[in-house]
Automatic annotation (TrEMBL):
Designated name of the protein: Acyl-CoA synthetase
Ranges of residues in domain AMP-binding enzyme C-terminal: 413-487
Family recorded in the similarity comment: Belongs to the ATP-dependent AMP-binding enzyme family.
Phylogenetic placement of the source organism: Bacteria, Pseudomonadati, Bacteroidota, Flavobacteriia, Flavobacteriales
Domain AMP-dependent synthetase/ligase: 10-361
Superkingdom, taxonomy of origin: Bacteria
């Protein structure tokens, strides 16, 4: 097999090493590359190349996920991972937005796949039922500057946007993390994160495979299995979001003393533990250090830029801070006029570098708006840089972006869905501070019938919003607080909940 895709070129050097271990077995790099070509054969058919067509796939976080992703890449397509937790309505939006011709699915999601195929003119491919074919086929030329992946992210415009990254973008992202976090081929990591976000896709899985390491893949979050891997000294690197660390701390307290001792000893043999995707409460950091002996390495990134900032692998880490720019990343802190501010002054973080995305899918105006005139990406995050060049994230510029449990959620998207219900006259969604989740989603509403059963509304939402997007706090009001211009004042709504 010959390919210009950097990660696949790199992985072809590892051949007999174990790449992935999941519930079904162990798979070498050679097997993974061969199985990916089976996917390529069925995608290409009579075509010579997919020429950057988006290909959606609905596959759990296991070996078949990577097989599918790599098969799409070898075909010259853009891999679009669908969120396995999302209801049909959200999956329909992505299929319609991408205009995909294919949906690759795992049979555990067959019901959803059939429903999507009925609505859209797409070809279904069952990843477990690919007839074996001769893989000695001519592969299309794929340039490293071509589109490789599209991940959907929430924004202030409501509906999610497809963030297109090239093979070069992904490669730059992986190289920066490999250098900063000292990845090595002897490493072993477990993925316990959703694979429709870059945290799991790139930071964990792709970074491990780039370096010839082994990645355990769990189809679902399973504390018993995680403790087993830890006790058996199977892991050298561990990455999670703050909510997972909080859950593990709570569960650790219920373990027998002998098991606690074994877990502690095993944690201390590991070389790196990372927390990201949401602010890490200092209390969680301190408790985890007491259990594991590790000061969690905090870092900062976004779907559009990959990882941009990271605390040091070797030097002292400062709680509540996310470190310095990673290799190849340039940063600036600016005021409202995009002029640089002095050290210690808060401002918006701007980022430039080879890992920054290429475009929002078919949204040229949104893409243009995301950058300054001289090409810096506007993160929308307010930061402060200290005299040592170490950054602290202070929050979002927009109150309409809620960061909960590692997910970035658009309040406007939730409001848009709520307003579709016949009983909802007005609504406003806000984020409330939470030590465990970073923020929790809250909805204030004016209803046609004040006596309407809220449980009916919650059941209705199950079919329309992913679990992590659903409000957990509710307040029924006679009217929403508004300013003189008639605009809802969201800080006042937060006060009503608090």
């Amino acid at each position: 097999m010959t390919t210009e895709i950097p990660i696949l070129q790199r992985c072809s050097e590892y051949q007999d090493r174990i790449a992935i271990i999941d519930e079904q077995g162990k798979y070498t790099y050679a097997t993974l590359l061969q199985d990916a070509q089976q996917v390529t054969h069925h995608l290409l058919s009579a075509n010579r190349s997919l020429q950057e067509q988006p290909i959606c796939f609905l596959v759990p976080p296991q070996y078949t996920y990577v097989q599918t992703q790599w098969g799409i890449w070898l075909s010259g397509g853009i891999a679009v991972p669908l969120a396995v937790s999302h209801p049909l309505a959200e999956l329909e939006y992505v299929l319609e937005d991408t205009g995909t011709s294919f949906l690759i699915y795992h049979p555990i999601f067959e019901e959803k796949a059939l429903a999507l195929a009925e609505k859209f003119s797409i070809q279904l491919i069952n990843i477990l039922e690919l007839p074996k074919v001769d893989i000695n086929i001519a592969l299309p030329e794929v340039q490293s500057g071509q589109g490789a992946m599209m991940v959907y992210t929430s924004g202030t415009t409501g509906k999610p946007k497809g963030v297109v990254t090239t093979h070069d973008n992904i490669t730059a992202h992986i190289k920066a993390l490999s250098e900063a976090w000292h990845w090595q081929k002897e490493d072993r990591i477990v993925n316990i994160l959703p694979l429709h976000h870059v945290h799991g896709i790139v930071n964990v899985v792709a970074s491990a495979l780039w370096n010839g390491a082994t990645c355990f893949m769990l189809s679902k979050f399973d504390l018993e299995k995680i403790w087993q891997l830890v006790e058996e000294d199977q892991l050298s690197v561990f990455m999670a979001v703050p909510t997972i660390y909080a859950k593990m701390i709570a569960d650790y307290k219920t373990l027998l003393d002998t098991k606690k001792t074994q877990v502690q000893q095993s944690f201390r043999k590991m070389r790196l533990m990372v927390s990201g995707s949401a602010a890490l409460p200092v209390s969680v950091l301190q408790e985890w250090e007491g259990i594991s002996g590790h000061v969690l390495l905090e870092r900062y990134g976004m779907t559009e830029i990959g990882m941009a900032l990271s605390n040091s692998y070797t030097e002292k880490r400062i709680p509540g801070h996310v470190g310095k720019p990673l290799p190849f990343v340039q940063t600036r802190v600016v005021d409202a006029d995009y002029k640089d501010v002095s050290t210690g002054t808060s401002g918006e973080l701007l980022v430039k570098g080879p890992s920054v995305f290429s475009e929002y899918w078919q949204k040229p105006e949104a893409t243009k708006e995301a950058f300054t005139k001289d090409g810096w990406f506007k993160t929308g995050d307010v930061v402060q840089e200290n005299e040592n060049g170490i950054y602290k994230i202070l929050g979002r510029q927009s109150v309409d972006i809620i960061k909960t449990g590692g997910y970035k959620v658009s309040a406007l998207e939730i409001e848009e869905v709520l307003r579709e219900h016949s009983e909802v006259t007005e609504c406003a969604v806000v984020g409330l501070p939470s030590d465990e989740w970073g923020q929790e989603i809250a909805a204030a509403m004016v209803l046609n019938d004040p006596q309407f059963d809220l449980e009916l509304l919650k059941d209705w939402l199950k079919q329309r919003l992913a679990p992590y997007k659903k409000p957990v706090h509710w307040k029924m009001l006679d009217m929403l607080p508004k300013n003189a211009m008639g605009k809802v004042v969201k800080p006042e709504i937060v006060k009503l909940f608090l």
